[in-house]
Design goal:
Number of domains of chain B: 2
CATH topology of the largest domain in chain B: Rossmann fold
Distance between the termini of chain B: 56 Å
CATH topology of the largest domain in chain A: Rossmann fold
CATH class of the largest domain in chain B: Alpha Beta
Order of helices and strands of chain A: HHHEHEEEHHHHEHHEHHEHEH
Number of strands of chain B: 10
Helix content of chain B: 40-55%
Number of helices of chain B: 11
Oligomer: heterodimer
Number of domains of chain A: 3
CATH architecture of the largest domain in chain A: 3-Layer(aba) Sandwich
Shape of chain B: globular
Distance between the termini of chain A: 38 Å
Largest interface: A-B, 43 and 44 residues
Structural class of chain B: alpha/beta
Order of helices and strands of chain B: EHEHHEEHEEHHEHHEHEHEH
CATH architecture of the largest domain in chain B: 3-Layer(aba) Sandwich
Structural class of chain A: alpha/beta
Number of strands of chain A: 8
Largest sheet of chain B: 4 strands, parallel
Helix content of chain A: 55-70%
Shape of chain A: globular
Radius of gyration of chain A: 21 Å
Largest sheet of chain A: 4 strands, parallel
Strand content of chain A: 5-15%
Radius of gyration of chain B: 20 Å
Strand order of the largest sheet of chain B: 2-1-3-5
Strand content of chain B: 5-15%
């Protein structure tokens, strides 16, 4: 998922002394592979992850890790395991979270089974560094998202980001990591931007996988940046790991008018964020989801109402393995024209 | 006083209990069978990707909104960590509250947060002006009656397993198989043939699902899978019925089809009514079973 493979790779490399295979970034071939072997109307992340798994197995992997989570994510692994076994692969699949809750004991057991000589304190130490790394990456990403649309020199942000990630790979203690983070944040702030004071601002909300994997939303954020728009996105790994529960509680308190009960996955957070974007005078909301994502489908009528109450335009994108890129571009352009006209 | 209950989704799990409960309190319940008009009404409010069952639910709410004083919509989240519900069930209340202008009675079932059905129903009764004692009595009687009825049904279903005819198991959610628009039409077609029909939704063998799928954590999918485990050796074929695009069935049914070694038929129903196609598919499936 985006650049998050770097901390994941880092953690696994430090814990196990195996060879870790970096699967190439998702391409249309991956999707084709996943689509071919998936059930008909499963949500799209299933297809993407299955495609990636097949590619990894073809490259010689024999241990796969699936994260799982709430809603349907938690049940992915079992079906994927069966599909891959039917295809004739031999491997072991670890599922870290089922039924929306992590089973710490089970994770410990599986780690022990894979590698008996493991040192738990060392594991926790590197886990701590990885978590910090994710947090810093997310903070930098937030800054980039706000400013990348206004960069003077083309690609300067991306080049610096690549450099930073390269450095992050070699870090060995948290203090060094912090110093690196501060240094690069300064460098990012020094990069020249040409940002007008009242630029267009758009918030991106929706289902987590499609939001965070740039290939699955056809680089929608890049496209937005090319229109000189400031982008606000709430969902990132840091949010999923630590702020999820707190945000939902806050959401239930602050948007009582629209919801009484907690909804599945990120649905209730999305209502709250839509309201936040409305009250803070953003120019538009873009809602992204993979097709057949049940929690988001259930919440869409409520988002409609929020948008109507706060008089903020909202557009829905539903991504499937067969979505055409051109169609999305046209809709996005039309949306951009619309919010620009509203400004005037 | 009249309370309207949309005859979709949770209706089929709780209605018997509610009927006994509100009967004691002299409250009439208003419901209607699903028909084409209901579905059309629902499609107006629903977004295009909602599952057919949810569209029907919205249609019912639209029909009921001016025919009763209240509409009863519980929020059902889970019955424990490993007995969760489809995510549609947890957004029903807020969905209706935002789409329609109706008075809603609601309670939450969330065993992880210690919110149980009993307290919820009693709170509703208090809201309507009854005293706690009569409510408790009504609830206890309702529970007893409901348990008895459930047991009777499952025994009838179990006895069918010993029949000499060819047997098929129908795997579907309660709200699909009992719906007069989706399931009943299909059942009518199957009943034409000389077969013994066994229903997965009448069994209560949740725990058996472990033998086919270890991680499964949806309560009512567990029931279906448990039924498959229970009947596997005695039946000649399985018919899966699901609506388009059902989130749970897309994964669970796919896994079952890969694991069982029996002839099966997978029927997916959407709002385009083309029963003729389904008829021929059932016919050819029955032919396969009879030849085996």
């Amino acid at each position: 998922m985006a650049n998050y493979y770097i901390p994941a790779h880092y953690l696994l490399e430090k814990i196990f002394d195996f060879e870790i295979i970096n699967v190439p970034l998702i391409t249309s071939k991956t999707i084709e592979l996943g689509n071919k072997h998936s059930p008909e109307f499963v949500c799209t992340p299933f297809k993407y992850t299955l495609g990636t798994m097949i590619e990894a197995l073809d490259m010689g992997a024999n241990v796969l890790i699936q994260f799982g989570g709430g809603c349907r994510y938690g049940y992915y692994s079992e079906l994927q395991e069966q599909i891959l076994k039917d295809l004739g692969y031999k491997f072991e699949l670890l599922n870290l979270i089922t039924a929306g809750k992590a089973n710490v004991k089970q994770i410990y057991k599986t780690i022990k089974r894979i590698n008996k000589k493991i040192n738990i304190i060392k594991c926790l130490y590197y886990l701590f560094i990885t978590v910090k790394m994710v947090k810093y990456m997310d903070k930098i990403d937030d800054y980039i998202r706000q400013n990348i649309g206004f960069e003077v020199e083309k690609n300067s942000f991306n080049k610096l980001l690549e450099k930073m990630l390269e450095q992050f790979k070699t870090v060995n203690n948290p203090i060094k990591l912090y110093i690196l983070y501060k240094k690069y944040l300064k460098k990012f702030k020094k990069l020249k931007i040409n940002k007008p004071k009242n630029c267009l601002k758009v918030g991106v909300i929706g289902e987590l996988y499609t939001l965070m994997e740039p290939f699955s939303n056809y680089y929608l954020e890049k496209e937005l940046a090319s229109f000189n728009i400031e982008i606000k996105r709430f969902t990132n790994v840091n949010y999923l790991l630590f702020k999820h529960k707190a945000t939902i509680n806050k959401a239930l308190k602050k948007s009582k008018k629209y919801m009484k009960y907690k909804m599945c996955a990120d649905a209730s957070s999305n209502v709250y964020w839509a309201k936040y974007l409305g009250t803070n005078k953003y120019d538009g909301i873009i809602h992204i989801k993979s097709s057949f994502c049940t929690p988001e489908i259930g919440v869409m009528p409520i988002l409609d109402k929020v948008a109507k109450d706060y008089n903020i335009p909202i557009i829905y994108f539903s991504f499937d393995a067969n979505t055409s890129e051109v169609g999305i571009k046209t809709r996005l352009e039309a949306f951009y024209d619309m919010i620009e006209m509203r400004r005037k | 006083m009249k309370i309207g209950i949309p005859k979709a989704l949770y209706y089929y799990y709780f209605f018997d209990k509610w009927q006994y409960f509100f009967e004691q309190l002299n409250i009439t319940l208003v419901t209607i069978d699903t028909n084409k008009e209901i579905l059309e009404r629902g499609s107006v409010y629903a977004s295009s990707e909602m599952c057919l069952s949810l569209k029907i639910f919205l249609g019912h709410v639209d029909y009921l909104k001016d025919k009763c004083d209240y509409i009863l919509i519980p929020k059902i989240d889970n019955f424990g960590l490993n007995d969760q519900m489809c995510s549609n069930f947890s957004c029903l209340y807020d969905l209706v509250n935002n789409l329609f202008d109706v008075k809603i009675l609601t309670y939450e079932i969330n065993h992880l947060k210690k919110k149980y059905e009993k307290r919820g129903l009693i709170n509703i009764g208090k809201q309507l002006g009854f005293d706690r004692k009569s409510l408790l009595k009504a609830y206890n009687i309702a529970c007893l009656k409901y348990k008895k009825k459930k047991k009777e049904l499952s025994i009838i279903n179990l006895n069918k397993l010993n029949s000499d005819k060819k047997k098929i198991l129908i795997v579907a959610h309660d709200y699909n198989i009992n719906d007069s628009f989706i399931g009943k039409e299909i059942i009518k077609n199957i009943e034409k043939y000389d077969l013994e029909i066994i229903y997965s939704h009448l069994f209560n063998e949740d725990y058996l699902s472990y033998y086919l799928s270890k991680n499964l954590y949806w309560k009512y999918s567990k029931k279906n899978v448990g039924a498959i485990v229970l009947c596997k050796e005695k039946i000649d074929g399985i018919i899966f019925i699901s609506t388009f695009p059902c989130g749970l069935d897309s994964l669970v049914n796919e896994l079952m089809m890969r694991k069982i070694e029996l002839p099966y038929l997978n029927l997916i129903i959407d709002d385009q009514d083309a029963l003729a196609g389904i008829e021929t598919r059932i016919e050819s499936f029955v032919d396969i079973i009879e030849q085996n």
